[in-house]
């Protein structure tokens, strides 16, 4: 059995594994895709002390760093079920999709999240070539350009306000007949001169020239007319979905499906900790996920040294 079993190999899981292994305890990582969302990212310019890097490069560095320690890395393994320990000091079980079962004294859940996609032609083709999901990450890449934000909930309206300070003009497109963001955000949005809001708009296509985005089409849901907007960037803000479906009923989740953690990364189950985008910790970013992963590993170590000797 492991002392610490990390589920997920993104920035949070990698940090947790390194911090745990450095305590000299038996550490394992099971990940569906080592590297996580970082693999889908091109330019990273807010990884503090590294002014510019690229996702695949950072993902390789994460794996190399983990492998410098005695960590049992199980890549391409999806966890299916978590079974809490039967009693204090017992082993926690994690069942994998391949039928295997792993046991550990503590578990760190770091399965991350995925951005909900529009599912329209051009979106996949132009991802990272104008189609973006993270305004904190990619906003500055569109300085002085024209962008659209898809989604008029809190995250969409926050993104539009944020981007309006950087880009030339923002068009916010909401599917519903009205914005769903908090009134105070809507008021702020309406006060900005370079933001235009389109409601009852269904994005139907992302246009590009083969290498980058050049525009989008949307349908007015009241008239069924299709309109085209010329622009350079599209920020999709229709939801971040935590990869926690498999944990329902096992650990406490928020109404949005995020794993509820306290300030030490402890979940509702003794010995089970969580970190990164899968949790209730706000602001989903690489440096934050790494910090939280490190913290969860230290908390797991603290928990282990208090366990009754077997
Ligand atoms: P993730 O990176 O999502 O990793 C989750 C891990 O868990 C993966 O290994 C996954 O395969 C695994 N997993 C999921 N489910 C299971 C399961 N059931 N069993 C086993 N393993 C599982 N942040 C920045 O700070 N700067 C940026 O420039 C930036 N740009 C971004 C660009 C894009 C396109 C995207 C999508 C995100 C970007 N982010 C950026 C956000 C950043 O990538 C995330 O905040 C960060 O990766 C979260 O780390 P994490 O370890 O919590 O989760």
From TrEMBL:
Binding site for FAD: 3-18, 267-277
Superkingdom to which the source organism belongs: Bacteria
Cofactor(s) required for function per UniProt: FAD
Record-annotated disulphide pairs: 134-137
GO molecular function: flavin adenine dinucleotide binding; NAD binding; NADH-dependent peroxiredoxin activity; oxidoreductase activity, acting on a sulfur group of donors, NAD(P) as acceptor
Subunit composition and interactions: Homodimer.
Protein name: Thioredoxin reductase
Provenance organism: Azospirillum brasilense
Residues of the full protein shown: 211 to 520 of 526
């Amino acid at each position: 059995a492991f002392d610490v079993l990390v589920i997920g190999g993104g920035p949070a899981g990698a940090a947790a594994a390194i911090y745990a292994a450095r305590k000299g305890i038996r550490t394992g990582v099971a990940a569906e895709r080592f590297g996580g969302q970082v693999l889908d990212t091109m330019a990273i310019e807010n990884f503090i002390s590294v002014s510019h890097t690229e996702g695949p490069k950072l993902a390789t560095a994460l794996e190399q760093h983990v492998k410098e320690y005695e960590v049992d890395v199980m890549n391409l393994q999806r966890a299916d079920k978590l079974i809490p320990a039967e009693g204090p000091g017992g082993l926690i079980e994690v069942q994998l999709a391949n039928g295997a079962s792993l046991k550990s004294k503590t578990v760190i859940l770091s399965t991350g999240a995925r951005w909900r996609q529009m599912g329209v032609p051009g979106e996949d083709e132009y991802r990272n070539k104008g189609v973006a999901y993270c305004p904190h990450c990619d906003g500055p890449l569109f300085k002085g350009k024209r962008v659209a934000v898809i989604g008029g909930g809190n995250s969409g309206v926050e993104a539009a306000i944020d981007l309006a300070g950087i880009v030339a003009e923002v068009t916010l497109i909401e599917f519903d007949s009205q914005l769903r963001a908090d009134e105070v955000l809507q008021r702020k949005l309406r006060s900005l001169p370079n933001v235009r809001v389109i409601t009852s708009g269904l994005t139907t296509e992302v246009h590009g020239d083969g290498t980058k985005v050049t525009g989008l089409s949307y349908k007015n849901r009241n008239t069924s007319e299709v309109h085209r907007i010329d622009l350079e960037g599209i920020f999709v803000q229709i939801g971040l979905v935590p990869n926690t479906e498999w944990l329902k009923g096992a650990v406490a989740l928020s109404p949005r499906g995020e794993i509820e953690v306290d300030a030490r990364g402890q979940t509702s189950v003794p010995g089970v900790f969580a970190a990164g985008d899968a949790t209730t910790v706000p602001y989903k970013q690489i440096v934050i996920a790494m910090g939280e992963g490190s913290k969860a590993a230290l908390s797991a170590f603290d928990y282990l040294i208090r366990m009754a000797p077997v």
